[in-house]
Design brief:
globular; alpha/beta
Length: 220
């Protein structure tokens, strides 16, 4: 099954499949260019984002990494973290198996940042996240700042009152989504793009109040 072919010692299939999909959109389908292609992933999907950015940064213009599991090897070596033990079914146990350790190190995003150009990146962390510690996105961003060779935007946003599942409250969540869209609009050069080809039409004038009926009897 496809899921079994994307875990443990076959985890790299996840990254190469994602890259193949991006290449198809760009080259075969011709639906987008690398200068417009933006990607997003959260948690383990954040690991996917970090991995493909290390492998093929030229394919993407921007990436949003939400509470990204980007220091996977270090986390899976620490069995005091709540999810480490049960997550071994997904990633393996690098503390007990040298082959698993070497394989995870080959794709763990923090361990594979290198001197190259990277897209614009927004990394989001939750201070109270019990699943992906806030230090994982912080460590990834620090490593990128040390090694990347471009001047593209690189932001770390730490939600001081959030856990793994974003902020609470409908309006607070909407503000978070708006921030992410604002980031994309900025890096795509769309901050001043009009919403239509020309000025919006003026609102229709309100109807005039009806004249009183002269034939109606006056109220007593």
């Amino acid at each position: 099954y496809w899921y079994e072919d994307g875990k443990l010692q076959k985890k790299a299939n996840t990254f190469t499949d994602f890259i193949a999909a991006a290449e198809h959109l760009i080259t075969s389908a011709k639906l987008v260019t690398p200068q417009r292609l933006c990607i997003e992933g959260r948690s383990a999907g954040g690991l996917l984002m970090g991995a493909v950015l290390n492998m093929r940064p030229d394919l993407f213009h921007a990436a949003i990494i939400g509470v990204g599991f980007v220091d996977a090897l270090t986390t899976m070596l620490d069995d005091t973290i709540p999810l480490t033990i049960i997550e071994r079914e997904e990633w393996g146990d690098p503390a007990a198996d040298a082959a698993v350790y070497a394989y995870m190190k080959s794709y763990s995003p923090v361990d594979n940042v290198r001197a190259q150009r990277y897209p614009h990146i927004l990394a989001i962390a939750g201070l109270h996240d019990p699943r992906v510690g806030y230090w994982e996105p912080a460590k990834f961003v620090a490593k990128l700042r040390e090694h990347k060779t471009d001047r593209n935007l690189l932001l770390l946003k730490t939600e001081m009152g959030a856990g793994h599942f974003s902020v609470t409250g409908r309006f607070e969540r909407l503000k978070e989504v708006a921030f992410e869209f604002a980031f994309l609009f900025k890096v795509l050069g769309m901050m001043h793009t009009p919403l239509a080809d020309g000025p919006l039409p003026a609102p229709a004038p309100a109807p005039a109040p009806a004249a009183p009926d002269a034939a109606a009897p006056a109220a007593k």
